[in-house]
Amino acid sequence: MRRRDFIKVIAGSATAWPLAARAQQPDRIRRIGVFMNLAADDPQSSKEISAFLDGLRERGWTTGSSLQIEYRWVADDPNLDRKNAQELIAIAPDVLLVGGGTYAGMLQQMTSTVPIVFVEASDPVNRGLVASLAQPGSNVTGFTQFEFSIGGKWLELLKQIAPSVRRVAVIRDPSQSSAVGQFAAMQALAPSLGVEISPIDARDIGAIEQALTAFARGANGGMIVTATGNARRHRETILSLAARFKLPAVYPYRYYVADGGLASYGPDVAEECRLAAGYVDRILKGEKASDLPVQAATKYATIFNLKTAKALGLAIPQNLLATADEVIE
Question: What's this model's pTM, rounded to 2 decimal places?
Fold first, then answer.
């Protein structure tokens, strides 16, 4: 081989080798940012995070070796929540897992490039998170729950458990379109059940306590707690008020009942987090959030707490107990 041709071969190899070497190297460590809509010390937080991590492990991801996860937790302070969200964006994550539509929307305003997978978001289309459930059309997708009609189901369940209820306080966040729709469903059904419903703004726990105290002065009262982040974070106080005022109540999630609530009807949030790990896995492997349809909850569980029913002087009908998914004694 002539010297000039030999140099050409070496030069070509020097150009091609780094590309080939990079292709043979293991994938870089991927970064996931997690923004949870509960406090770090909330027992439910650990359950939801554990389910998410289990879902990742099932798909071959291991924190520390193939994954780095950065967590931020809700602070009940809009300025601090925004600061926490900005910090997550600053680490340049490959994907974000976000609890709740409010925080998914906040992060969406901060980035149009980082994929966002949400859980526990109701009515994501009207919120502006996605163009449609089938075709999100942006950097956001995830798992939604609670169609508007669920409001009627909660009210109907409350009447079945406590037939004497004539007045119902509904704790909701009026800034959420889902809350408006759910309340409208209750209003439509209320006359046929012989009840009057009263909305209570869920955005401030002090206001909730004041409103429930005033509401409880009347007779034959009951309560429905909708799926709002503020109610979740202050559920201990809300459960305590329900017990103090002897208000039969229906809640959106099982953990309210496990903590002493009377009844719940809703999806398993931890299961949503485990399923969300599947979307995170697909995004890390190259799929786009815009191509992943928003999934709705397919299973709703009915849970009763018999100890709480006894404290309220209620006997839950046997036909309800027979069809319940779980009865806590």
Answer: 0.85
